[in-house]
Design brief:
Blueprint (H helix, E strand, L loop, with lengths): L4 E6 L2 H18 L3 E6 L2 H4 L4 H4 L7 H8 L5 E5 L11 E5 L8 E5 L13 E3 L3 H10 L4 E3 L5 H9 L5 E5 H7 L6 E5 L13 E6 L4 H8 L4 H17 L7 E8 L2 E9 L6 E9 L2 H6 L14 H18 L13
Parallel strand pairs: 1-2, 1-3, 6-7, 6-8
Antiparallel strand pairs: 3-10, 4-10, 5-8, 5-9, 11-12, 12-13
Length: 331
């Protein structure tokens, strides 16, 4: 009987659910059993505010240590929680097709966020969402919360909070069925975190070739292009993955559209861009491919995507984004 492939994952219900989806897909590709290996990260034990500890890769560091120590064969991360710096000894082997990237407001009554009565309490631990709430509903009180999805929903059901904001993809992966009313927030006016709705499958750079080839079959190219742009913006801003900024890219035929916004933590200011570029050979020639290749000669679209993200970050910085975004201290 074949040795199972070991998938390292956090212990939370959401992490287990999304890892389970990847395990099932990989089993279909390889015909081998995939075994979940639960790992406790600092993010699961440190109850401090994400605004204080979120930029340190708290959900990824322990998992990566386990992977490098041989405790598992590959990892599944929520991509929005993954630092932009990937150690040389590791690689992102696949990014499956992205799910719904939107945020969702959940309330008991269905009253839209901007219409909540003055003093209503809105729960979120994300600095980006906090800034957005303060712009959309300045009359509401933002409550910095942590905890799993069920515990957050329970605080609204009990009346302790009037609303919570969660990722639509997480609710979908958990199959959450709640009596709470949902308000989906459109990405045009409420862009979300770089990589939101996406998963990252990470393994060692020296992993067996058959494993890397099998994981590569789970990759979705348009998703990888989009998240490459988004994460390059974050990298170019030199900000942590919990910075009050948003970036969402979408492949549209041969072009890619990028909406990105940087917020002041209190929501008082924002700097945004909406850019559409064709990621073809001409773009690569104009933006420094390093080899002069064009699309017909095998130009790398991922390189073009990263260059686009870095160029967008430079434009944001030129417009004053550095005054709004706290700099990353560690990855």
């Amino acid at each position: 009987m074949s040795t199972p492939i070991r998938l390292g994952t956090r212990r939370s219900a959401l992490a287990q659910a999304q890892s389970g989806h990847v395990a099932t897909a990989l089993e279909a590709v390889t015909g081998r059993r995939v075994e979940l290996v639960p790992i406790i990260s600092e993010g699961d034990t440190n109850r401090a505010s994400l605004s204080e500890i979120g930029g340190l890769g708290i959900f990824a560091t322990r998992l990566r240590e386990a992977l490098l120590a041989g405790e598992c064969d590959f990892l599944v991360h929520s991509l929005k929680d993954l630092p932009t710096a990937v150690p040389e000894s590791l690689e992102i082997a696949a990014t499956p097709r992205r799910e719904d990237a939107r945020d969702v407001v959940l309330t008991r009554t269905g009253v839209p966020l901007h219409e909540l009565r003055s003093g209503s309490s809105v729960g979120t631990g994300s600095p980006r969402r906090i800034a957005q709430v303060r712009r959309r509903a300045p009359h509401a009180e933002v409550v910095d919360i942590r905890g799993n999805v069920d515990s957050r929903l329970a605080r609204v059901l009990s009346g302790e909070l009037d609303a919570v904001i969660l990722a639509a993809a997480g609710l979908s992966r958990l199959g959450t069925d709640s009596p709470l009313r949902r308000e989906e927030l459109g990405l045009a006016e409420w862009p979300t975190a770089p990589g939101q709705g996406s998963l990252a499958i990470e393994t060692r750079a020296d992993a067996p070739e058959d494993l890397r080839a099998a994981l590569a079959q789970l990759d979705h190219e348009d998703t990888r292009l989009a998240i490459t742009v988004e994460r390059a913006i974050l990298e170019g801003l030199d900000a942590g993955c919990q910075a009050p900024m948003a970036a969402h890219a979408e492949v549209q035929g041969a072009a890619i559209r990028v909406r990105t916004v940087v917020y002041a933590p209190d929501g008082s200011r924002r700097i945004g861009l909406d850019v559409t570029e064709a990621l073809n050979g001409e773009y690569i020639r104009r933006n420094g491919s390093g080899n002069g290749a064009d699309a017909a000669d095998g130009a790398d679209p991922m390189h073009a995507a990263r260059e686009l993200g870095l160029a967008v970050a430079r434009r944001l910085l030129d417009q004053g984004a550095a005054d709004l975004v706290p700099r990353e201290q560690s990855s």
